[in-house]
Specification:
By secondary structure, the protein is an alpha+beta fold. It is 40% helix and 21% strand. The longest helix has 13 residues.
Length: 146
């Protein structure tokens, strides 16, 4: 496991909010030379700290989407297969393994109630899924991640 410096953590924070920032702008933001920023970025990528870059939808656009938390109970020895299937369900953004009454929390987002329902139905149909409980997210009161 790579040991992250304060400068590494600062770079990661900038990239979390603006993954498409140019290396030149990243260097300016961090107050370092372009070559220093490039080397640090390459080291974080090569070591696996930065796995990929992604597209984040604008809040004004995503506000019209509907999201849900789907609590899932899986059968014995089916966790890996269920998670593999979940990775292919449209709209699945996050899958969390949790303690308690359920085994997983699946976060799904979709552009309409109909497409959200279709994704939830796909989750329910996965072999190994024993039980689900779905809660539609009405609003997000606090979100600290971009």
């Amino acid at each position: 496991m790579i040991r992250l410096s304060k400068a590494d953590l600062e770079m990661i924070e900038v990239l979390k909010t603006s993954g498409r920032i140019s290396v030149s702008d990243l260097a300016k933001t961090l107050g370092v030379s372009r070559s220093t920023a490039q080397k640090r970025l390459e080291r974080l990528e090569a070591s696996g700290v930065i796995e990929s870059y992604t597209c984040l939808l604008a809040a004004t656009y995503q506000r019209s989407w509907v999201s849900a938390h789907v609590l899932v109970t899986v059968g014995p020895k089916t966790m890996d297969a269920v998670v593999q299937c979940l990775s292919r369900v449209p709209g699945v953004e996050e899958v969390h393994s949790v303690s308690g009454e359920f085994d997983l929390i699946v976060v799904i987002s979709a552009p309409s109630v109909e497409s959200l329902e279709a994704s939830v139905d796909e989750v329910i149909a996965i072999d190994g899924v024993q039980r689900t409980r779905t809660s539609i997210i009405l609003s997000t009161r606090i979100k600290r991640r971009p």
